[in-house]
Amino acid sequence: MLFADTIDGVKVNAIMYSIVETAKENGVNVRYYLQYLFDQIPLRRARGDTGFMADMMPWSDAYKEYEAKKLRKQQSMFGRLFMAPDRPRTPRKRDMAGNEADRQKAVGTTIGKRA
């Protein structure tokens, strides 16, 4: 495997690649998913919890709640700061037709006629 000098390095790379690709295939935020695993697994093991692996899957309700909470927190922190600004409205041709007639009246000429 790329950038692995030992067999153990190859195994670790394969595990990480598998975790990341599983997250991608399930449509979750990979960064949040890895953070979730690195936060939750040590906590659960320290408590002696042995039946926690089902909650570690990217399709679990526990992870989905975690990701939703993270996304809400991110949105509240940044608000509209990094969102694209509203695009200015470009007038449509049918809107311009009425405006052109009004402009011509103000000038004193009509469309298609010479003074």
From TrEMBL:
It comes from the Bacteria. Residues 83-115 are annotated as: Disordered. This is Transposase domain-containing protein. InterPro entries: IS66_C. Residues 18-59 form the Transposase IS66 C-terminal domain. Residues 86-105 have a biased composition (Basic and acidic residues). It comes from Bilifractor porci.
